[in-house]
Design a protein that fits this description.
seven-stranded mixed sheet, 2 domains, globular, binds adenosine monophosphate, Rossmann fold, ligase, 18 helices, binds coenzyme A, propionate-CoA ligase activity, 31 strands, five-stranded parallel sheet
């Protein structure tokens, strides 16, 4: 099989990607099977909206499955499903997975789903979720996977935005402590949504069987009668999926990914960044509802001809505290990719790493960590325990693959704790000061990327180019704003310190404080509110709510706080993890009335920040100090 081409070392490749993007990306595109090979890489005719490989045609599912069978990998394992919570393991060869996918693609076409139609997938970590995604790709339909930890309201918002023809769901998910019935959540979402899909396909699970209504179709029954269908070639620039992500407001942004640029970039990244090659076993311990799941559970390993591990459950804790090591040993995993929070959870339960000794994890060559800042303490603990490189990489839903990483397959760089290392090809990463000029080495600023972004990154926000430009491209002309703050050192290593907007990262899950504030503000007793992300030793950050109640209420404030915690869980979902709301007398503001969220966060985190000169009434923040610091 064609390998992703490799020429010079990192410096030469990186320079070439910026100076000769046509040559660099057309070379990388040779690792993909095209029905019409592209003759051009970048189309800048509608800048700042860029397209990649404008005259190429391909099918992503063909590249993920069929081509490997044609090349003799039909009997190799494509997907290993390991579910301690369901007490089940299963494995699919490339041929078996292709057959399932082709048949489910037949189910979808039978329901009238055609190229360009949207399909929402609301499923736990079961093989059918991967089958559904790839079946959409096979027929050129656009999938939109919604994370199972989101509640009905969030699902409804996404259904109304994506306007799917069909929704695919399972009867339930399984969390270590409870079975989560998904079908009632879907029914509630459809009662809330304005848009109605024509049909819902439901995968029944034995842990909790769903009640079916007129538009529901049983997955197994539908599969029994469906005919397999082949791959539909699409334009490289056609959308493959929409993935909603949290922004600063309550309305999530539908990140749109293309087919061609995505396949080329992910294929390049798996070998050059993650040093993982055809036939090897890659395990991304994340969820298909997040971008890490899209890129590194499903697409990149399968595009590369690897075996991917689909793990259902927490990789730590109940029912098996040593699950992380057991899975590596049992499936001969060569690269593990997860979030630092998972490693902190392992460390908390087993500080001396004793559970590791029961397992032979000799197959493991690298541990990759992303999703939140890798704190130096976690980095050192994992490095000492595992004796393999622990590799930080920084990126986001919008980019789909690493912006800054250590290119372990191309040219490993010395690791520096606290830095995800250097920019990847095509990403011209800059640190900008408040005036939009390049900040000197060592100085903090906004992390921005000079346009164009490389292949595989977002095309736009679903059906809203203006929002894409407004949200990402308007702060500094000619740049994409990442929303993160950071700096570079003298060697060009990038340090990413955290969000400079109202997005927070809770246990590696990206959430919007704005969305939580909307829920709090909707309570009839709340006059005003703020949600801030404060440091947490396990989850990195957790949200905390502060509310001011309307005057003259005759209710116990604690009861209202309890209702508010429940409302966030009900509306956004348990994954929001808002456990604490304090009722306070007033919120600190600037003279122009802006709530000083950053100041509150700094105080809660124990940082001695100077109060901003624009503060309206310093007495308000002084009164809040003990609440924020937990000294009450
Ligand atoms: N469906 C339903 N509920 C879900 C869910 C899902 N798919 N995912 C999470 N939840 C629920 C959890 O059960 C929990 O509910 P609870 O409040 O009743 O306990 C809540 O949402 C918060 O979940 P989480 O943030 O995952 O916290 P946790 O304490 O259950 O687990 C970790 C913490 C660190 C073990 C866990 O987050 C983890 O393994 N993370 C790995 C990394 C990862 O997935 N990163 C994503 C991007 S790489
Ligand atoms: P998501 O879109 O869910 O992948 O979240 C992206 C955000 O997570 C980024 O904008 C960062 O704030 C944070 N993030 C992801 N990876 C890292 C990392 N390696 N270091 C620091 N922050 C990270």
């Amino acid at each position: 099989m064609t390998q992703a081409p490799k020429q010079g070392g990192y410096a030469a490749e990186y320079r070439r990607s910026l100076e000769d993007p046509e040559g660099f990306w057309l070379d990388a595109a040779r690792a993909i099977d095209w029905t019409v090979a592209p003759t051009r890489a970048l189309d800048a005719s509608e800048a700042p909206l860029y397209r990649w490989f404008p005259d190429g045609r391909l099918n992503t599912c063909h590249n993920a499955l069929d081509r490997h069978i044609d090349a003799g990998r039909g009997e190799q394992l494509a997907l290993v499903y390991d579910s301690p919570v369901a007490g089940r393991e299963a494995a699919f060869t490339y041929r078996e997975l292709r057959d399932e996918v082709a048949r489910f693609a037949g189910v979808l076409t039978g329901l009238g789903v055609a190229q360009g139609d949207r399909v929402v997938i609301y499923m736990p970590m079961i093989p059918e979720a991967v089958v559904a995604m790839l079946a959409c790709a096979r027929i050129g339909a656009v999938h939109s996977v919604v994370f199972g930890g989101f509640a009905a309201h969030e699902l409804a918002v996404r259904i109304d935005d994506a306007r799917p023809k069909v929704v695919i769901a399972a009867s339930c998910g399984i969390e270590p402590a409870r079975v989560v019935p998904y079908k009632p959540l879907l029914d509630d979402a459809l009662a809330l949504a304005e848009h109605q899909p024509e049909r819902c396909v439901i995968r029944q699970r034995p842990q909790c069987t769903a009640d079916m209504t007129g538009r529901d179709l049983d997955w197994d029954q539908a599969m029994e009668t469906a005919e397999p269908v082949g791959c539909v070639p699409v334009a490289a620039t056609d959308p493959l999926y929409i993935l909603y992500t949290s922004g600063t407001t309550g309305r999530p942004k539908g990140v749109v990914r293309d087919n061609g640029g995505h396949a080329v970039a992910l294929r390049w990244s798996l070998e050059n960044v993650y040093d993982t090659h055809p036939g090897e076993v890659f395990w991304a311990a994340s969820d298909v509802g997040w971008v890490v799941g899209h890129s590194y559970i499903v697409y990149a390993p399968l595009l590369t001809g690897c075996t991917t591990v689909l793990y259902e459950g927490k990789p730590v804790g109940t029912p098996d505290a040593g699950a992380l090591w057991r899975v590596i040993a049992e499936h001969r995993v060569t690269a593990l990719f997860t979030a630092p929070t998972a490693i902190r959870a392992v460390k908390k339960e087993d500080p001396r790493g004793e559970l590791l000794h029961a397992h032979d994890i000799g197959s493991l060559r690298h541990l990759f960590l992303a999703g939140e800042r890798l704190d130096p303490e976690t980095y050192r603990w994992a490095t000492d325990l595992l004796g393999v490189p622990v590799v930080d990489n920084w990126w986001q839903t919008e980019t789909g693959w690493p912006i800054v990483a250590n290119p372990m397959g191309l040219e490993p760089h010395p690791l520096k704790a606290g830095s995800p290392t250097v920019p990847m090809p095509g990403y011209d990463v800059r640190i900008l000061d408040a005036t939009g000029r390049d900040a000197p080495p060592g100085a903090d600023g906004a992390v921005a990327i000079r346009l164009p972004l490389p292949p595989g990154t977002l095309l736009t926000v679903w059906q809203d180019d203006a929002r894409y430009v407004r949200s990402y491209l308007s702060a500094y002309s000619g740049y994409y704003l990442t929303g993160d703050g950071g700096r570079k050192d003298d060697d060009g290593y990038v340090y990413v310190m955290g969000r400079i907007d109202d997005v927070i990262n809770v246990a590696g899950h990206r959430l919007s404080t704005g969305a939580m504030e909307e829920v709090l503000a909707a309570h009839p007793d709340v006059a005003e509110c703020a949600v801030v992300g404060v440091a947490d030793p396990l989850k990195g950050q957790v949200p905390r709510g502060l509310v001011v109640l309307k005057a003259g209420l005759d209710r116990d404030p604690q009861d209202i706080a309890t209702e508010l915690v429940a409302a966030v869980r009900e509306t956004i979902g348990p994954v929001a993890a808002l456990r604490r709301v304090d009722v306070v007398a007033a919120l600190p503001k600037t003279r122009s009335g802006k709530i000083l969220r950053r100041t509150m966060r700094d105080i809660a985190d124990g940082r001695d920040t100077e109060l901003p000169s624009t503060i309206d009434d310093p007495a308000v923040i002084e009164a809040l100090r003990p609440v924020l610091r937990d000294d009450v």
